[in-house]
Design a protein that fits this description.
It is built from eight helices and seven strands. Strands 2-5-1-6-7 form a five-stranded parallel beta sheet, with helices on both faces. A two-stranded antiparallel ribbon has the order 3-4.
């Protein structure tokens, strides 16, 4: 059974690293089913709600009713891969597409660079008053990215890397609800990356009555695979484990991340453009 080591790191209380962005970017990673997509969506919703209320207060006396300014965007990497078919073949044995990392990173580079560029323009918007640059005014967005593979992204993308951890009994129930394949197949060693939220895994030596997908993912969680990958890929002080067993965990994780983002912004108010 996996023992969840809940946030014994100090990243969520430490001073953030100085970056040229005005809002921090967060990667949410973890074994499939730990709640990455749900948490990312909740954080984005909360940040945008807060931002929208602040905007309304600020614009109370003004005609301008522009609600388009968002504080955060959800980068759902699995969805992006499926949408743009960033595939590099198909693995028939594993019944999964193989991820084309280069295509994915090229795409994400544009997203991350475009966001940063707009934010930088916003910080110097007083120098511009044409329409094109006006739209960048106050532009700053946190990109909240979720994916079960963390080692493929450039380190520069993220200011905080969260690894969600779920006890295997909860995880198992979630897999059953997800209706993963029920046909047992051989449990092979799977390495490399693919887009199917089932195949970041570790060596398994037993055949169980559950599907290979379920077994692989449970093994992955038990063996700390994603956490180890995160620790090997990012500065240890920005990698934090969070428990994601219950709804209460999820709610408290939203609060903690939102607070961390606010603190980061306060500490980086005078970031040079
Ligand atoms: P992932 O993106 O990591 O694969 P999802 O966000 O899709 O996981 O969540 C998988 C399922 O587990 C969803 O039905 C979601 O509502 C549920 N879930 C996620 N996190 C929790 C949690 N902390 N407590 C209870 N249920 C959760």
């Amino acid at each position: 059974m996996t023992t969840v080591n809940t946030n014994n790191g100090s990243a969520m209380t430490q001073q953030p690293r100085s970056k040229s962005r005005r809002r921090p970017n967060v990667l949410i990673t973890g074994t499939p089913g730990t709640g990455k997509t749900t948490l990312a969506a909740m954080i984005v919703e909360r940040l945008n709600q807060m931002n929208s209320s602040e905007e309304h207060e600020r614009q109370d006396e003004e005609e301008d009713d522009d609600n388009d300014v968002v504080a955060a965007k959800h980068i759902n990497v699995g969805e992006i891969i499926r949408t743009y078919k960033f595939y590099d073949g198909y693995d028939a044995e594993l019944e999964t597409h193989i991820l084309d990392e280069d295509q994915l990173i090229d795409y994400l580079d544009e997203v991350f660079v475009e966001t940063l560029t707009k934010a930088q323009l916003a910080t110097t918007s007083s120098e511009y008053d044409d329409d094109e640059n006006e739209q960048h005014e106050n532009y700053s967005v946190s990109l909240i990215t979720d994916y079960h593979i963390c080692e493929i992204f450039p380190e520069r993308y993220f200011d905080l890397v969260l690894v969600l951890r779920t006890n295997t009994e909860f995880l198992y129930d979630r897999y059953i609800e997800r209706n993963y394949h029920q046909t047992p197949t051989n449990n092979s060693i799977i390495s490399g990356h693919n887009n199917d939220d089932s195949n970041t895994t570790a060596t398994t030596t037993t055949i169980t009555p559950v599907s290979a997908k379920v077994t692989q993912n449970l093994q992955c969680e038990i063996m700390n695979v994603i956490y180890e990958n995160a620790r090997n890929s990012y500065a240890s002080e920005i990698v934090v484990e969070l428990s994601s067993n219950t709804i209460e965990d999820m709610e408290s994780n939203v609060e903690r991340v939102v607070q961390w983002i606010q603190l980061w912004m306060k500490d980086n108010e005078s970031v040079p453009s």
